[in-house]
Write a structure and sequence with these properties.
170 residues; alpha/beta; Rossmann fold; 5-stranded parallel beta sheet; 44% helix; 15% strand; globular
Length: 170
């Protein structure tokens, strides 16, 4: 079976990686959908779809995980169009998300949808990681090693700080 996992991955963190590993225990393949693909350099979506894709690919390659695809999905602001766009480009049997609205969209589109487990949500969240980066606090241990290396290479902390400016609220 092929599973679909939807997220913004801003940035890709260790919780996301744990979910991918869990999904692959139940499925033969995973399609990782990078949502809000048209967004970048905003507080909520500081990294581009290509940057997020690179974070995921470097991590999965380092772990020897090969049974995946990545699809970048832009927002349509119309649930039916968004769901149909994903169904048109991705062949899958079930969808996983923590976003109940996303799950509802897939269920209404005739797709089996499942709520995935969360891992240490108090610290393993994109919001928390971006906040730590903006404040110059430790964040590297919350993301896979390859993501930390990549973000340092593209000056991810500086990107976040320039977006947040003096107002560090996420």
């Amino acid at each position: 079976m092929t599973a679909l996992f939807v997220g913004r991955f801003q940035p890709f963190h260790s919780g996301h990686l744990s979910v991918i590993k869990d999904i692959l225990k139940e499925n033969d393949k995973i399609i990782i959908v990078i949502g809000s693909a048209q967004e970048s350099r905003t507080k909520r979506n500081p990294f581009s779809a290509e940057e997020r894709k690179e974070m995921i690919e470097r991590t999965l390659k380092a772990l020897g995980i090969k049974n995946y695809e990545i699809f970048c999905a832009r927002d349509f602001f119309n649930d039916n169009l968004w769901t149909e766009n994903i169904k048109k480009h991705c062949k899958f049997d079930r969808a996983y998300s923590r976003n109940t609205h996303v799950l509802k969209c897939f269920k209404e589109g005739g797709i089996k949808a499942k709520l995935h487990k969360l891992y240490n949500r108090d610290i393993l969240s994109g919001t928390e990681i971006r906040k730590r980066m903006a404040e110059g606090k430790e964040w590297e241990k919350l993301v896979p090693e390859k993501v930390a290396e990549y973000l340092k290479g593209i000056k991810g902390e500086e990107i976040i700080k320039s977006i947040y400016g003096k107002n560090k609220s996420v």
